[in-house]
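Lecture 7 notes: from sequence to structure.

We start with a single chain of 148 residues. Read the sequence below before looking at the structure.
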Amino acid sequence: MAEYPAALGELITFFESLPEGERRENLIDLAAAAASHAPKDGEKFDLEDVRHDAECTDTVGVHARLKHGDHVHFAISLGPKVQTLTKAMATILCRGLNGSTLSEVLTVPQDFVPRIVGADLVRLRSQTVYYVLGRMKQVAQALQKAVN
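Now the structure, written as tokens:
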């Protein structure tokens, strides 16, 4: 799992070890924890991208701050209609990518998503499961351009 940041690799390994029922239960638990990755009052970010895209049921905000040069910290704000799977992916990505370099975020392959959520959910919710990762990569790319 060398192509993934360590924290994301650990999450992938954890989810791959679970039977389907436990995998879904853990995704629901992670969705419930999404609010813990929202921006805190007074928290400052280098870039904030808040919008409602056609791929999502409500507004999603990706907030990013650079630390120690090019290491990124993400926070995610989610509208009340955002689906459970999107909330779970937001939590997974914040846990798995925070502290990574911008280039690590930009080179994370999408192939880990079915390994976490399972092939059935990927087929049912193909746009949803990749949406937050795509948004985080867009923000990382904009930050990288600003740094260079």
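DSSP finds seven helices and three strands in the chain. Keep this in mind for problem set 3.
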